[in-house]
Amino acid sequence: MKIFNHVGLIEPIEMNTVNIDGRRYYNTPTGSKHKSVTTVISNNPKKQEVLAKWRARVGKEKAQQISSRSSTRGNRYHKLVENYLNNEHDTNLYQEYPLIWVMFNSSRKILDNINNIYLQEAGLYSDFLGIAGRVDCIAEYNGKLSIIDFKTSAEEKKEEYLYDYYVQEIAYACMLQELYSIKVEQLVTIVACESGDTQVSIQPPKKEYFIKLQEYIRDYENRYERDLRG
After folding, report:
1. Fold of 16-225
2. 98, 140, 163, 166: which sits with the fewest CB atoms below 10 Å from its CB?
3. 91: closest CA among 105, 76, 110?
């Protein structure tokens, strides 16, 4: 089994969360209350329209079941990956969930491309952008410093459905640079699928992702935070 090296150059940031009108905010060490980057991106009008049409098509109850199953699957997979990268791999862990176990083991060769880990499941924030969140992993992937995002899916995702992942990852890249003056070389999205396939997308930190992030933030503020400010 591979032993992962942890660089230990960055002290993790502790942040707690608060929900306001069903939307998540982070209390940052600077005393600011920053909106969750996940909430900002997931509440963009296009995504909400697509979700609304999907819920109408499959029905409210079925949509809730699928969403709940997807969330549980993702949380369990993330925990296995976190333990594995922390060199705490337990062959008995989650064996009562055979699907998650298969998905994890199918992705291990991909995960082994990770090393020299800076942060895992760690809080980051940006006073400049007014956002915060928890990054899955900051580490080298095939020797290049990367923002690494772990996802699960029933099947491989079309490129158009990966785009917002890149936007979220560029947000973490911005936070990392603002807080620690560290630049990443690439954005890595790893999608473990129920079929046993593992989808990997590697992107440079493009300016267009940053522009789209700013667009999402402006739209979110116009629709929600204006009401909070009264």
Report:
1. Lambda Exonuclease; Chain A (3.90.320)
2. 98
3. 105
Amino acid at 81: V
CA distance 74 to 37: 18
Tokens matching residue 120: 């895992």
pLDDT tens by residue, 193-222 = 999 999 999 999 999 999 999 999 999 988
Structure pTM? 0.91
Residues 6+ apart with CB under 8 A from 128: 174, 178
Residues in the chain: 230
Query: Which sequence spans correspond to the domains of the chain?
Result: 16-225
CB neighbour list of residue 209: distance below 8 Å, 6 or more residues apart: 166, 167, 169, 170, 187, 203
Contact 150, 134 (CB under 8 A): no
Residue appearing with tokens 């980057």 = 37
